[in-house]
Amino acid sequence: MKAKINLLRSRLMGEGNAATLARGAASSFAIRMTGTGINFITQVVLARLLGVGSYGSYIYAITWITVLGVVGKLGFDTASVRFVAAYSTQQAYGLLGGYLRYSSQVILLISIGAGLCLGLVSWIFQARYSLELLHTFWIAGALLPLSTALEVQQSRLRALKKIIQGQLPQEVLVPLLVLVGTVIAAVWFKSDLDATTAMSIRLVAVAVALGISFYLLIQVLPKEVRVSQPIFKSNEWFRAALAMVLVTGFNMVVAQTGTIVLGATLGTKQVGMYAVASKIAELLVFILVAVNSILAPLVASLHAKGERTELQRIVRIGVWIVFAISLSIAVILLIFGRQLLSLFGAEFTASYPILVVLIVSQLINAMSGPVSLLLNMTGYHGDSAKILAISATINIGLNIAITPIYGAFGTALVTAITSLIWNGSMSIIVWYRLKIIAVAIPERIFAISIKGDN
């Protein structure tokens, strides 16, 4: 037994792909778990202090930041994982420096424009909003460029396989600062907070995290990048990023359309009910994101080398780790779901049926977690975009038809249906394009099902 333990330890400390995946996933898991815990507490505190209406306004504005952030990033967050990882591996420091400079300039310009548009549109339609929501939107417009830059910085650090440095500012520091700031504000004002104050606190938190993230990137970049003459392949980078933004954009439509339709048709209270259930269901997500954060650069590297067998092995390990842990967490959430919802306030316990449906949706994601990643990192982002475009169209249609009638429960049901459609479709495409099984189903059963389709 001691010899086996020593062998396992030596393998984990080695330089192999499995060891890299295990260490990276473990680090990411720890950070995600810590960040998720802090964020959960933060959301509980915000929901209790703001109440359903103001909390819904806060979440509604955050949703618009998330949606417009897709435009602001223009796909350079996903593209960074691909290009930064490739150029770093190839020691192409001139290209790496050129890519970082070019992508930063484009992101800054577009994200500021998106933030200004959010503020302008909210001012034009101010008659439809409360004064609180209007002011919250204005602060959200200022927050958008900072939030966008922070996400791109995280992607760059991940591409350099600096998992801790890449995730710590956004995943842990931001929710921690929001939590501390909220408590201080509650004590200082000695009254109920509003959505505007909560958004202002988030603005400060993201600004601090962004400054730290920039410092960390400078520290880990190879010194050769600073002294090498930048080489620009602007057209190639822009085309790739544009394809990535289509993938991310359609994915965002699938994720956020329901919340937007809820807010537009039934008001922010329904948004708050759905948001709380979604926050709890997202506890299943952090293991998927943890594994994918280190799997992405590995996939890009192994595909570039043509090592398909090793790629299949690494993907299989990642998929089954994600599904096994996610299933365990899902069982716990189903058992204690009502108690968790009551932490946000007694009125939120009515969201339990919504929570059940969203848990099922997250389990579907866990079963085939890396399918989109595999297509994006191997040059088949076009297939990914097409599938997500069809899924987004279905999602919009179903949300328009179902959400106004069944409310937040209908939104959750549409989310689960859409998740099944795009995950199933991508799993099949990954097999036909790459001959990789990227779903948590025994290989023999998957092979039989594929042959049956033929």
TrEMBL record:
Pfam short name (any one): Polysacc_synt
UniProt superkingdom: Bacteria
CDD domains in the record: MATE_Wzx_like
Membrane-protein topology: Multi-pass membrane protein
Regions that span the bilayer: 106-127, 133-152, 172-189, 201-221, 241-263, 283-302, 314-337, 352-375, 387-406, 412-434
GO cellular component, one term: plasma membrane
Subcellular location: Cell membrane
Coiled-coil ranges per UniProt: none
Keywords: Cell membrane, Membrane, Transmembrane, Transmembrane helix
Protein name, as recorded: Flippase
Organism this protein belongs to: Aerosakkonema funiforme FACHB-1375
Taxonomic path: Bacteria, Bacillati, Cyanobacteriota, Cyanophyceae, Oscillatoriophycideae
